[in-house]
Amino acid sequence: MSIDSDSAALFPDEVVTRAHTRLVEVPGVDGRVALVTIDNGHDHTKPSTFGPAGLASLDSALDEAFAAEPAAIAVTGKPFVFAVGADLSGMGQLSEREYAHRIAKAGHDVFRRLTESEIPTFAFVNGAALGGGLELALSCHYRTVADNAGAIAFPECFLGLFPGWGGTQLLPNLVGADQAVTVILENSLNQNKMLNPGKATGMGIFDIQLESPDFLEESLRWAARVINGSSTVQRAEIDRGQGWDEAISRAKEIAASKTHGASPGVNKAVELIELARNNDLDAGYAAETEALADALMTDELRAGLYAFDLTQKRAKKPAGAPDKSLANDVNKVGVVGAGLMAGQLALLFARRLEVPVVLTDIDQGRIDKGVAYVHGEIDKLGAKGRLSSDGVNRLKALVTGSLDKSAFADADFVIEAVFEEMSVKQQVFGELEQHVSPETVLATNTSSLSVGEMGAKLAHPERVVGFHFFNPVAVLPLLEIVRGERTDDTALATAFAVGKKLKKSCVLTADTPAFVVNRLLTRFLGEVIASVDEGTPFEVADRALNPLGLPMSPMVLLQLVGPAIAQHVNETMHAAYPDRFGLSDNLRRFVDAGKTGVWTTDEAGNQIVDPEVAELWQQGDEPLSEEQVRDRALRALAEEARIMLDEDVVVEAADLDLCMLLGAGWPFWLGGITPYLDRSGYSELVNGKRFHQPGVASLPSS
């Protein structure tokens, strides 16, 4: 097989992964083993991927391996990385389906040589194996994995795609359809969950897990035992009947609940796993090739690639951040408050920074409860094997509590997580300033209040910065860093440095009400609630946004955020922008009544509107259809996003998208929000212009 120069020319920026073959002598093997190493010439921070030239290099290396007539062929990667799949940057440049089809077929043609080889083939997975990298491993007859290998997964559905180089056919026939559904769909659509080597081996993806220090040598020794027959690999029997039926039903439920049919790639993954039941690689690979060629020519896939690029590149170099050399060292952290949010923050700071963390609150009982929560969470990490016993003890010793704020005297960074009320936060910062040094950064976790106003009465307002996390803190990667009117570069640089150490993706925002995520969500949710106020049934309004495939419906979002918090943020927004953010008397009554959700279940288990909610919610007589509610919400989002850019809330539209992807969990196949508004026509309809040039997060214009 050869990959023509036309295809390679479409990937002009390909970082080529080279494959090198060498013949090695292995005790116990009659003959030599051809060891193929794939390496793009960079360290582990730039993992090996496959574009046309990379596939051609692997193909040539296999030519050399087969020509040597070895006893076995084994494939392994560079240090810490096996391979992480296709060159996605090049995929986004394909302008014709013909080229997409060639790339799709090329992956199958090269990898399949290992599957159909009469010589035993092995994958020695020494590090990260994602997407096409995992498909390469599955294409071999046998697989070992290092115990320190990280990032084992099929992340394609997360991007709005599907494994397209054999994964949908090989995995179900190796581990069964149900486990394949878990890896291909469920994990991918659950915040792109990864497998560890032990879990993957237990599922049957790998035949054996080996210790990392001498992984290659041990893999060769194990392979020798397989080759000479002294070790036999047992594989699970595959249930192609009822078990497969049940797996496909579960896959359809996952796809429906996670995407509402909005992601063609996810739906195609379900179809392809069903096709794999026949275990016919000719038919399966042909279907994958055609489906992948189609998918590569969709706007949804281009939006997914745009979103992936934002999270992998822009998130690591935040736009507008000061020079990192201006940041102060942080050797001790203070947390004001000892509630649930404060406890989550204290745990995160202790784990990531490994410095002393002190919590304080208004009484000793609250402090003790907060510290106990953090210690309990650390114990859970130990019980799960994520911390050693020494690590547990060391981490718990870092987290303490004090009723006296003088405990913050030597803290370099203090964050407040108290009640969302300006006067309360101003009082907290005023008290703190009496105890901390002038250089101590004072951070607020406010979700909507003015950072500048919070520090206005201080002697050193320049050290106050917004540091807004999203709940749950351990899961959502976004950190909105807010520059107040008087925040200086040192405080801001320190905040960005701390955020990076916390392994969060930081976005700089201006000090405007509710910043980015909460402002957009409040506007969108406000329009949906207004439609209910006017007479739209709850059920209709709640289904209205389903075609976007959002992670949750409006009413579920309201319940997750908490109606009282949503109402408070909306009041803040109404005070700032009364013409665009209305107040709902119904929502106020809902909150006053102590209700937390709209839905309940009847005796048959069906979801219905809570009768108490139905009684207190006074609706008008002008109901809207789902389409009308969706149109209203999207018009509002288009308007608000444009206003935010005009106000310089963020540097570019890409930052709005990054915030919605990482802070609100909006799907990659939308590209965040602004590309979707462009593609659906709302940008031009509402604002008279697009947010992006044609071809950005969409197919190139012809």
Write structural notes for this entry.
- The chain is α/β, with parallel strands linked by helices and about 700 residues long.
- The longest helix has 21 residues, at about 625-645.
Task: Provide a short characterization of the protein structure.
With 702 residues, this protein is an alpha/beta fold. The protein has 29 helices and 19 strands. The longest helix is centred in the C-terminal third of the chain and has 21 residues, at 626-646.
Number of strands: 19
In whole angstroms, the N-to-C terminal distance is 31 Å
Alpha-beta classification: alpha/beta
Q: Indicate the percent of residues in helices.
A: 40-55%
> Helical stretch count?
29
Largest sheet descriptor: 8 strands, mixed
Low-confidence stretches: none
The oligomeric status of these chains comes to: single chain
Global outline: globular
Output the strand order for the largest sheet: 12-11-10-13-14-15-16-17
Topology at a glance:
Elements (H helix, E strand, L loop, with lengths): L4 H5 L8 E8 L6 E8 L12 H16 L4 E6 L3 E3 L4 H4 L5 H19 L5 E5 L2 E3 L1 H7 L3 E5 L5 E2 L13 H9 L1 H13 L7 H7 L4 E3 L4 H13 L14 H18 L4 H12 L5 H15 L3 H14 L20 E4 L3 H14 L3 E4 L3 H20 L5 H10 E3 L11 E4 L5 H12 L7 E4 L6 H5 L8 E6 L8 E6 L5 H13 L3 E6 L6 H17 L4 H6 L10 H8 L1 H14 L8 H8 L6 E3 L5 E3 L1 H6 L9 H21 L6 H11 L10 H6 L2 H6 L15
Parallel strand pairs: 2-3, 3-5, 4-6, 5-7, 6-8, 7-9, 10-11, 10-13, 11-12, 13-14, 14-15, 16-17
Antiparallel strand pairs: 1-2, 15-16, 18-19
